From TrEMBL:
One of its GO terms (biological process) is DNA-templated transcription. Pfam families: HTH_1 (PF00126), LysR_substrate (PF03466). Residues 7-64 form the HTH lysR-type domain. This is Transcriptional regulator. It comes from the Bacteria. InterPro entries: LysR-type_TF_proteobact-type (IPR058163), LysR_HTH_N (IPR000847), LysR_subst-bd (IPR005119), WH-like_DNA-bd_sf (IPR036388), WH_DNA-bd_sf (IPR036390). Belongs to the LysR transcriptional regulatory family. PANTHER family: HTH-TYPE TRANSCRIPTIONAL REGULATOR, HTH-TYPE TRANSCRIPTIONAL REGULATOR TRPI. Keywords: DNA-binding, Transcription, Transcription regulation.
Length: 308
């Protein structure tokens, strides 16, 4: 029997964790060690192999050609080991972190289509709208608002345009007389996650907002329920309000204005995860099928003539 010449398995595990997590800190959290320990293991692996695997400053490490080649094979190798362990479930999991309101209003209502075509895959949604932390709690992919090139070390699939605008209940719109000036004098609602929404929208359309009472809500989901209940008018995303507008629960008098950022599916670029790639393809198809926002209820040129 020929003896295999392998480097330290602990060092290989540290490097593979770095590949998936995208940083020393997150790899350390997954392995329950310090980030210094991960760094030392990777340096030891480089010495054993006689080749550099990473290059660049500590805060922006990139793979050398040798490192990229090893990274591509290691994840698959560890996946095979994991799959061979006794008690391994035949089903496959995909854990995705997503802003809660987007998951509730857009993603989950469409998820049955993906599950019907992929019954063997268990999709778990974890609510989170902060910085993406791969390797933390097993998260393998994330949905975030993003614009521009993919972040370093990540694969990015922009699948849905982002637009925002004021919404309110039809009954409150009628109470206000259906005129722009009166609607803007209704109580203005906003969420703590997007406190500058009204100011951004007003600047975008070029008008000064009149004095009005204001109310704040912790989450976008609370905000939408408050709007539907007739508490006031709020600026929110088309993706959040689409279902309520299509059902007639809410209306958007000014329509929605496009923003530069898009809803984007993120995952580590060097971690091979076919299920995440399959989910990205599905998201793209769902994004293409999504309806465009409705036009303004007010005639063209209203803003230029509006006196508040």
């Amino acid at each position: 029997m020929v003896r295999r010449r392998l480097p330290s398995l602990r060092a290989l595990q540290a490097f593979e964790a770095f590949v998936r997590a995208g940083s020393m800190v997150r790899a350390a959290e997954e392995l329950c060690v310090t980030h210094g320990a991960v760094s030392r293991q990777i340096k030891a692996l480089e010495q054993q192999l006689g080749a550099k695997l990473l290059t660049g400053p500590r805060h922006n490490l990139t793979f050398t050609p040798t490192g990229r080649e090893l990274a591509a094979s290691l994840s698959a190798a560890f996946d095979q080991i994991s799959a061979a362990l006794p008690g391994t479930d035949a089903s496959e999991d995909l854990i995705i972190s997503s802003p809660g309101t987007f998951a509730m209003k857009w993603l989950i209502p469409r998820l049955a289509n993906f599950v019907a075509s992929n019954p063997e895959i268990q999709v778990r949604i974890v609510e989170d709208d902060g910085p993406v932390e791969f390797g933390d709690s097993g998260v393998q992919a994330a949905i975030r608002l993003h614009k521009g090139a993919a972040p370093s070390g990540l694969k990015a699939t922009a699948f849905l345009d982002h637009a925002f605008g004021p919404v309110l209940s039809p009954a409150l719109f009628e109470t206000a007389g259906g005129t722009p000036m009166q609607v803007l004098r209704l109580p203005r609602l906003h969420s703590e996650t997007f406190p500058g929404g009204w100011d951004q929208w007003a600047a975008d359309v070029g008008l000064a907002l009149p004095p009005s009472a204001e109310r704040s809500f912790e989450h976008n989901s609370y905000l939408l329920e408050a709007v539907a209940g007739g508490l006031g008018v709020a600026v929110t995303a088309w993706a959040f309000a689409q279902a309520d507008i299509e059902s007639g629960r809410l209306i958007a008098p000014w329509g929605f204005r496009a923003l530069a950022s898009r809803f984007t599916f993120l995952r580590p670029s060097l971690a091979k995860h076919p299920i995440a790639d399959r989910f990205a393809i599905w998201l793209l198809a769902e994004g293409r099928r999504s309806k465009q926002p409705p036009p303004s209820l007010f005639e063209t040129g209203t803003f230029s003539r509006l006196v508040v």
